[in-house]
Amino acid sequence: MNFPELKNDLFLKALKGETVERPPVWMMRQAGRYLPEYRELQAKYSFFQRCETPELATELTLQPIERLGVDAAILFSDILVMAQALDFHVSIEKGEGPRIHNPIKTEADAFAVKMPDVADRLHYVMSAVTMIRKELNGKVPLIGFAGSPWTIFCYLAEGEGTKDFAKAKAFCFSYPKAAAHVLGILADATAAYLNAQIEAGAQAVQVFDSWGGLLSPEDFNVLSYPYLKRIVEQVSGAPVILFAKGVWYAMEEMAKSGAAALGLDWCLEPELARKLTGGNITLQGNFDPTHLLKSPEEIKKEVHSMISRFGVNRYVANLGHGIIPGIPVQHAQAFVDAVKSYSPIK
Amino acid sequence: MNFPELKNDLFLKALKGETVERPPVWMMRQAGRYLPEYRELQAKYSFFQRCETPELATELTLQPIERLGVDAAILFSDILVMAQALDFHVSIEKGEGPRIHNPIKTEADAFAVKMPDVADRLHYVMSAVTMIRKELNGKVPLIGFAGSPWTIFCYLAEGEGTKDFAKAKAFCFSYPKAAAHVLGILADATAAYLNAQIEAGAQAVQVFDSWGGLLSPEDFNVLSYPYLKRIVEQVSGAPVILFAKGVWYAMEEMAKSGAAALGLDWCLEPELARKLTGGNITLQGNFDPTHLLKSPEEIKKEVHSMISRFGVNRYVANLGHGIIPGIPVQHAQAFVDAVKSYSPIK
């Protein structure tokens, strides 16, 4: 496809480890409820209508670019579209978490999971990616994304979001082979999905392992990390960012995964993160989203401190998790502006 | 008070760092829903009836001692009785989390919080402690407990349990002095409460900082750790165990708090925990509660591996968080038996 030339390549340069004048900035869940223009579309269309209609997904993806001036766009979608592609019936009601109506309960349920034709089942995502890429007109690069196999599995086996995903973990301990079957399919399907997004126009992709941190280091190495690595190995044509929340203990190993960058939550300090990851990989994060409730002046101060601790190069300024709905837009703006106003000579 | 002589002092010896033939074992939330005899009383009495009636609290505390043969009893109660002592209206409905009906919303609400007469407001707890201690008849020692100031504050300001306690954190960032006022009172009231429990017969006390791990290392050092330390400094007459879930990053500092032992969740590996804490403090934990869903044979194998990694001395075998309701009693029994059957010569 012939897309307009990229004007702001700060984000892609940071992922490649090239020298930049300042770090790029975007925010996880930047197309979200804290934006009044998001809430307008939220009131009119259901969650999956917004995901499945390329025009709506495009509008939502572009909102924070126009409003805040971030350095990257991230596709508006949801990690659970992959569950739908695998024939799970997912609903997300307003004010509630997601629900899987036909969760995996038995070994037979697990072995019945078959590799889907992702490009066909999720064609609307790829249509949205291409439409967004055109609409962006080269302003900033577009990030595609997917959930990690472990995190998707959590929902498939638990049936809903819970604090500890005990049922999902129990399933893995009771039926390790059945769990590995599903996790393997999720890894291959996710790699195919990310490759299709890249082919459709995504210039980088991020894998969200939101529930990796519920696992002990040993379990993470059995139930999550091998599948993250399998995805990285299969994805080509764009850099991969791995974000495994709460997984400070596997940073050293993950730095060797082949990913271009690792996302961090706010519990891992910049100096320790650099030390654990060896200093040669791009790091992304890790502003505590609840700190966006502080005053714009304090946000600026803390963002500048964060950048000086991570360093300007091999770094993408971001939050340590998705932005929360109650953040005033001016505070999100203060976050973005603070990154842009950073100067190492102070 | 004159209590019967203690027959099994394994737990207290481990807390003192004395040499033992095997580690003591107990389980967080061992008086809980996984026990059929617990569910019988649960069906008859409300949660707070069970907490407030010394006879019921005694019966519930003793159930796992009789059934499983653990090496320590822990008072049946709830961390939120402290909220009640501070005039917050708390309800815990079956199948739901706790709810505070008059949460802290304004600075004025926070400054209205006054130091309570804990021994008076929570006299029923101290009555239960004395009754349990007598009923135990020296079989095993009795552990008292309380929630940490930060964790209690989370509920007071959030009004309910949530994933990120964003409102509670936001309150601290918006009104740091008002938050410090409440946290300071909570620390002093908690120290007084634990001292009253010790006077009534508790032979060790544990402070649960269940939500410490939601804080960045810097915020933990402002909002939680100073108050944990203040409690340790004020409590006397019995060893203090600090359990801050998810707070791997502060282990080094917490080892210097004056606490007799530190509790660990399952995300911190034994060798790293020993390294971070300097090897001279007793560690407690850290079996993943969901691993109790594995087979009794696997539980035994993993428990033995855990003990050999922590070492027999300065160690209390426990879970890394409370036991979950769905665990078969035989699996809890397998956990306890595995600790008792451990022999370093293998």
Q: Report how far apart the termini of chain A are.
A: 44 Å
Spans where pLDDT lies below 50 across 5 or more residues of chain A:
none
CATH architecture of chain A: Alpha-Beta Barrel
CATH topology of chain A: TIM Barrel
Strand order of the largest sheet of chain A: 1-4-5-6-7-8-9
Rg of chain A, please? 19 Å
Provide the helix percentage of chain A: 40-55%
Mean pLDDT over the residues of chain A = 96
CATH class (first level) name of chain A: Alpha Beta
The number of distinct structural domains of chain A comes to 1
Q: Return the structural class of chain A.
A: alpha/beta
The largest chain-to-chain contact, stated as pair and per-chain residue counts, equals: A-B, 31 and 31 residues
How much of the sequence of chain A is in beta strands? Answer: 5-15%
Number of helices of chain A: 16
Q: What is the number of beta strands of chain A?
A: 9
Main sheet: strands, sense, barrel of chain A: 7 strands, parallel
* Global morphology of chain A: globular
Write down the oligomeric state.
homodimer
